[in-house]
Write a structure and sequence with these properties.
This protein has 357 residues and is α/β, with parallel strands linked by helices. Helix content is 33%, strand content 18%. The chain has 2 domains: 31-231, Rossmann fold, CATH 3.40.50.1170; 245-356, Rossmann fold. Residues 1-27 have low confidence and may be disordered.
Length: 357
């Protein structure tokens, strides 16, 4: 009897030791994720939990991570504060700094993915920029919130939890830069913000979702087909500044001097957020054609939320030397055009980029 008891105790000790070893082994196998914080509503606080106004970027990254239960069970986490601004104050300088830091981190073998906390107002622009200049197939995931951190039903903590879950998921590799908001996984090429206040503000109206994330568990539907990250030709390693590209919003009876002012103030490219299929009135059309003859690259996009801007539909783009944005909205067309203008290109070459990216 004592012999059996002794054997049972030995078995329990061996089993317990084995479980602890397995547990330790599992901890060591957790992916290493770096969270790069830039500010935004997700790091914002309000004077009370039920008011609309708040201050962006009031909470630092360490406090954000500590406030999310179970987050450290998904990955080994490190945080860095790259910037601390509302995304309305996001600059090209910050974007360049962020992209270079991401490339440096992902070149390390002990970094498996990146999460970027970001305000929602310009999130789609930063996401698309990173989609074109990050040089790794490892996951890069942007995340934000529509409600500040201390609001009733704040959405930031679960968004951050899901974003880490996506960045830690091997199935996220090779899909380009992703955005995780309100359980949905979007591709950087297609998403856009559609509501000023609703929690479900981000949509991918033309290409649909990449997948969904539910409490860190992911289901992927598709992988974006556009060129991105490791397939992108754009390299900002030695880039210190991007050329000026303006966006002009078209409307009824739009004056031609808006185009002329952009040219006068040094724009190297102009994106027209045109009416309908990228159209503009006769006066602005003629001014844009004059700008194109001077070597300014003019891209026709649309102020309409969804749809494709077609070439030579109502405007003779070949004759006027214009470029059409295809599926890209004006703000993303601007990002692509700035990168395209880092080296001399013909309008035909720029047009090819808009069909590829």
């Amino acid at each position: 009897m004592r012999s059996r008891l002794r054997l049972s105790l030995v078995g329990i000790v061996v089993l317990t030791f084995g479980m602890s070893q397995t547990s330790a082994g599992q901890e060591k196998k957790l992916p290493n994720i770096v969270i790069l914080a830039t500010g935004g509503t997700i790091a914002g606080t309000a004077a009370n939990a039920t008011q609309a106004s708040y201050t962006s970027g009031a909470v630092k990254i360490d406090a954000m991570v500590a406030a999310v239960p179970g987050l450290k069970e998904l990955a080994n986490l490190k945080g860095e504060q790259v910037a601390n601004v509302g995304s309305q104050d996001m600059t090209l300088e910050i974007m360049l700094t962020l992209a270079k830091r991401i490339n440096a981190l992902l070149a390390q073998q002990d970094v498996d993915g990146i999460v970027v906390t970001h305000g929602t107002d310009t999130m789609e622009e930063t996401a698309f920029f990173l989609n074109l200049v990050v040089k790794s197939s490892k996951p890069v995931v942007l995340v934000g919130a529509m409600r500040p951190s201390n609001a009733v039903s704040a959405d930031g903590p679960l968004n951050l939890f899901n974003a880490v879950g996506v960045a830690a998921d091997p199935k996220s590799r090779g899909r380009g830069v992703l955005v995780v908001m309100n359980d949905w996984i979007h591709g950087a090429h297609s998403l856009t913000k559609t509501s000023t206040t609703a929690v479900q503000t981000f949509m991918s109206p033309l290409r649909g979702l990449v997948g969904i994330s539910t409490y860190g568990k992911n289901d992927f539907y598709n992988s974006p087909q556009w060129r991105h990250t490791t397939e992108s030709e754009f390299d900002i390693t030695n880039t210190q500044a991007l050329p000026r590209v303006d966006i002009l919003y078209a409307y009824a009876d739009m004056p031609a001097d808006l185009v002329e002012a952009s040219v006068k103030n040094g724009a190297k490219g102009i994106v027209i957020a045109g009416v309908g299929n990228g159209n503009m009135n006769k006066a602005s059309l003629e001014a844009a054609a004059r700008a194109a003859k001077k070597g300014i690259v003019v891209v026709r996009s649309s102020r309409v939320v969804t749809g494709v801007v077609g070439r030579n539909v109502e405007i003779n783009d070949d004759e006027m030397n214009f470029v059409v944005s295809d599926e890209l909205n004006p703000q993303k067309a601007r990002i692509l055009l700035m990168l395209a203008l880092l080296k001399p290109r013909t309008s035909a070459e720029v047009q090819s980029l808009f069909y590829s990216y």
